[in-house]
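Hi Y.,

Following your request, here is the sequence exactly as I used it, all 210 residues.
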Amino acid sequence: MVDIEKAEKDYTSKDIEVLSELEGVRKRPGMYIGSTNATGLHHLVWEIVDNGVDEAVNGFGDKITVIIRKDGSISVEDEGRGIPVDIHKETGMPAVQLVYSTLHSGGKFSNKVYSTSAGLHGVGATVTNALSEWIDITIFRQGQIYNIRFENGGKLAVPLHVIGTTNKHGTLVRFKPDPKIFTTVEFKWDTIYNHLQEEAFLLKKVHLIF
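Below is the corresponding structure, written out as tokens. Let me know if you'd prefer a different format.
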């Protein structure tokens, strides 16, 4: 029989942990991506791809390009509107920084910005950031090229800044998964190819390039 009185005395406020959102994701990644094996690893890719798909199916661009890089990172580029870069009034930070560092932030909670969406609402981008060694986001928007970078599980390394001008529009996300989190960090060609092929069957007007 468990001694409830003793157990109550042993279980106090000192046992209650308060983690930042990104620390919480890193401590319990399975809650967000299911596992830390190859399935969970590739889930990070699906979340970023789905963000591009959401842009495309809502009429913003029709091409998404996925590239496995030689350094073990992967990049996903869409031709959508580009993640907003203006300052979010309530938090005082650029919108893209908010989206990549705060759970349940994003434009998919109402039908004002997206009539339909596939990704985890306001979770996917943050989780991919939290579980990456680094993530680099380049935004092509309103004639400008913006860049922001996070490292070591979502810590801001390079604040949002302008790096040039462009006629393009869209978002390029490149990230490298954290080997401290995953049992494997090797992206599988067949796994990604098959997933994109399935997406291509469902999305009549979206071009997926791998």
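The two ends are 59 Å apart (CA to CA).

Thanks again,
Q.
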